[in-house]
């Protein structure tokens, strides 16, 4: 076989590989391959200590019991569990969800609960029913990366509000809302992860909770409270969710992904009744109905298993991991670095010395067999270049210690590089880059 | 002259090829790209009823190669280990035939400054540039070194890691003030940076295959990324780049590009398959940028496009390459 290039005739028509390239909606413009995502793919290799992903550690789950429950569901209620269900979710499970929320002093009716595919689907449905292109969504800065991607997919204008160690700063929220009101912007809701924030690890103080609710009520602004980590507390007193003090103004999102298993994909939204009706209709068009099978297993788990004790066991495990991370950071991090000290949840948010860029140094880190999520992923349109999210939920305490040791080596090398070349300019990227959820 | 043993190997027909191990993944930033390339090669071979196993590089690899060796290994690893020759050293140690260049040739091709020097000796035009290690900037002071670099090479410049692909750590620099940030980005991937005069023109990739009758160039593929920069997003997001295969070149330039790629393949003693990246400037002169011993085989990679433009079947080509390795033994 031989090929002579002179035999090939130039083709004036180029190929873009994807024949539908001209057909995509404008909202798909940001859905592109990224270097950072490519690096996360390497980070899932076993040689790499991944402090990047937020995958719950389910090693303590009673798999035998869950296996029996699954069998019972098939044998005893297979004809309904393997049939279509409703878009709002199983009424029995919704009642049980209310009992779970009661642990955090939320008083709710099962009628106002809608089961969703993880709380992520709730976020998608809420954005779908509220946001037109160009509408403003306020979020903390930094905020949950996949919320950014959801809002961006609906072409929202995403505005961040400053946070500190006590959560979002009420004065900054008020000022931003006043500014947006002056410019006549259509602000649709304030999205917040007030308890053990992802990625910042901080918790909104009780005093600020009152202020935030008061400000949002004054501006007639809906609050979307995302609380997947609230029951994963390792020290201190529980803090009342925003929804516990405002049934009218708050849509509350909960999830079994961290307290049971993300594999069932069961979360929920608790919404004022008019909003709930819209969400149910939106859910119906999105996925017709939920998996009755998964709902039935989770329902039986809640009805028959000592799940509060299971959560306590998870909390013991996560506390040891958090302590290992905080102790390692304290012992090893170079001067000029700071980090948050979470009382629960999965994440520590680190701030690096001036002139360092966590995104730029990620390839070197992966080369040294440690991974984290650069802070830029948690901001829309720039910011967070000196930050990194360090996750302690999945690796063992030994792996965490080794991971921090490797990370510190990379940081020292970066500090030397900064001293040689000066600082790296701030990133102006779109944000929203984080590992796929299956990354350890 | 062939020995009797070699003669027996050469008698093995394509039908004898029935078990291939595709190596894909690896511990480099190009892991994901390699996985996609590997899957495509594996699917192609399976379509021709070749039994294929895909394996990543890990502790189990050597055991697999020695205890249950495949007939042929098809390395589709990109980046370090995959392209710097080290995995191929392992394949030599295990005594398993494999597709592609030998370790020493890979080492030379993977080190971009070395490859550049070797092909320049053959009269191929290469961008003027310097290869500078990170430590040198630290020891001599970055501002003074960068001032000399700009004085010598002028602007615009192109900065890229001395090893690696997929445009990781690469950046165009139009002003001297952008150089430090470009170098910091580059040093995240490699301890040595290649700083070159930026050549502007038509960007093309020329695949070379050798199925036993000597290396032959495939039709050049012209690359026209949206926004003009062939970065990671432009490479691996379908639709972000327009490809012309064959490239829109006149016969003489197309011939020069093909000859350049074949010369590179020969000069670096490559084997079976390679892809050379070139730029044709406004005067029609062909400039060598770099060569890949394990070209990308993804849906958006240029080599499969070139294969198609040549009227060849990608699956048949993969089988031919594996068969050739089997014959070599």
TrEMBL record, chain A:
Pfam families: Aminotran_1_2. Signal peptide: none annotated. Residues 62-407 form the Aminotransferase class I/classII large domain. Keywords: Aminotransferase, Pyridoxal phosphate, Transferase. InterPro entries: Aminotransferase_I/II_large, Class-I_PLP-dep_aminotransf, PyrdxlP-dep_Trfase, PyrdxlP-dep_Trfase_major, PyrdxlP-dep_Trfase_small. GO terms for molecular function: pyridoxal phosphate binding; transaminase activity. GO terms for biological process: alpha-amino acid metabolic process. Belongs to the class-I pyridoxal-phosphate-dependent aminotransferase family. This is GntR family transcriptional regulator. It comes from Thermobifida cellulosilytica TB100.
């Amino acid at each position: 076989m031989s090929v002579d290039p002179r035999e090939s005739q130039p083709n004036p028509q180029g190929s873009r590989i994807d024949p539908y390239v001209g057909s995509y909606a404008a909202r798909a413009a940001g859905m592109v391959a990224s270097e950072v995502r490519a690096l996360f793919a390497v980070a899932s290799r076993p040689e790499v200590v991944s402090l990047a992903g937020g995958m719950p550690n389910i090693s303590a789950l009673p798999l035998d019991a869950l296996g029996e429950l699954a069998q019972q569901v098939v044998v005893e209620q297979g004809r309904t569990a393997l049939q279509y269900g409703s878009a709002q979710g199983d009424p029995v499970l919704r009642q049980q969800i209310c009992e779970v929320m009661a642990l955090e002093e939320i008083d709710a009716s099962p009628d106002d609960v809608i089961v969703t595919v993880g709380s992520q689907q709730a976020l998608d449905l809420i954005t779908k029913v509220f946001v037109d292109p160009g509408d403003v969504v306020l979020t903390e800065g930094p905020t949950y990366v996949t919320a950014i991607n959801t809002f961006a997919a609906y072409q929202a204008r995403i505005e961040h509000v400053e946070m500190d160690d006590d959560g979002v700063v009420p004065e900054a929220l008020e000022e931003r809302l006043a500014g947006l009101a002056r410019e006549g912007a259509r602000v649709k809701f304030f999205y917040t992860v007030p308890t053990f924030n992802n990625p910042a690890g901080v918790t909104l103080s009780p005093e600020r909770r009152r202020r935030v609710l008061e400000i949002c009520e004054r501006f007639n602004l809906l609050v979307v409270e995302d609380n997947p980590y609230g029951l994963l507390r390792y020290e201190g007193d529980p803090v009342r969710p925003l929804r516990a003090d405002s049934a009218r103004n708050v849509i509350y999102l909960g999830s079994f992904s961290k307290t049971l298993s993300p594999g069932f994909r069961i979360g929920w939204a608790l919404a004022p009744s008019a909003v709930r009706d819209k969400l149910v209709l939106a859910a119906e068009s999105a996925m017709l109905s939920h998996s009755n099978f998964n709902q039935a297993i989770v329902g039986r788990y809640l009805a028959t298993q000592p799940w509060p004790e299971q959560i306590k066991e998870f909390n013991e495990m996560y506390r040891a991991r958090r302590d290992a991370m905080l102790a390692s950071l304290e012992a090893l991090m170079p001067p000029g670095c700071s980090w948050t000290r979470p009382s629960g949840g999965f994440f520590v948010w680190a701030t690096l010395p001036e002139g360092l860029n966590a995104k730029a140094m990620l390839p070197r880190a992966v080369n040294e067999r440690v991974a984290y999520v650069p802070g830029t992923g948690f901001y829309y349109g720039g910011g967070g270049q000196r930050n990194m999210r360090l996750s302690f939920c999945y690796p063992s305490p030994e792996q965490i210690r080794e991971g921090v040791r490797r990370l510190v080596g990379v940081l020292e090398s970066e500090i030397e590089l900064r001293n040689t070349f000066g600082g790296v300019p701030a990133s102006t990227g779109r944000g929203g880059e984080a590992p796929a959820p299956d990354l350890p | 002259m062939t020995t009797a043993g070699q003669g027996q190997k050469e008698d093995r027909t394509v039908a004898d090829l029935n078990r291939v191990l595709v190596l894909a993944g690896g511990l480099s930033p190009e892991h994901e790209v390699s996985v996609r390339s590997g899957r495509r090669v594996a699917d192609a071979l399976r379509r021709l009823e070749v039994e294929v196993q895909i394996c990543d590089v890990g502790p189990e690899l050597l055991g697999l190669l020695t205890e249950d060796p495949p007939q042929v290994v098809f390395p589709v690893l990109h980046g370090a280990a995959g392209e710097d020759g080290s995995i191929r050293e392992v394949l030599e140690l295990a005594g398993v035939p494999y597709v592609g260049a030998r370790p020493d040739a890979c080492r030379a091709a993977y080190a971009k400054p070395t490859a550049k020097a070797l092909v320049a000796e053959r009269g191929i035009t290469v961008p003027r540039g310097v290869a500078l290690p990170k430590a040198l900037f630290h020891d001599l002071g970055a501002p003074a070194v960068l001032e000399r670099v700009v004085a010598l090479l002028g602007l615009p410049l192109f900065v890229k890691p001395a090893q690696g692909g997929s445009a990781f750590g690469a950046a165009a620099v139009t002003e001297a003030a952008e150089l430090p940030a470009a170098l910091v980005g580059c040093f995240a991937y490699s301890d040595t940076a290649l700083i070159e005069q930026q050549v502007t023109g038509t960007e093309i990739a020329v695949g070379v295959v050798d199925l036993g009758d000597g290396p032959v160039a495939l039709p050049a593929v012209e690359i026209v990324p949206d926004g003009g920069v062939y970065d990671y997003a432009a490479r691996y997001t379908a639709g972000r780049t327009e490809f012309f295969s064959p490239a829109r070149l006149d016969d003489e330039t197309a011939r020069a590009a093909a000859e350049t790629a074949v010369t590179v393949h020969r000069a670096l003693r490559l084997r079976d398959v390679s892809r050379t990246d070139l730029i044709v400037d406004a005067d029609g002169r062909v400039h060598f940028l770099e060569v890949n011993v394990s070209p990308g085989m993804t849906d958006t990679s240029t080599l499969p496009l070139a294969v198609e433009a040549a009227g060849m079947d990608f699956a048949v080509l993969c089988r031919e390459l594996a068969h050739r390795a089997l014959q070599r033994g």
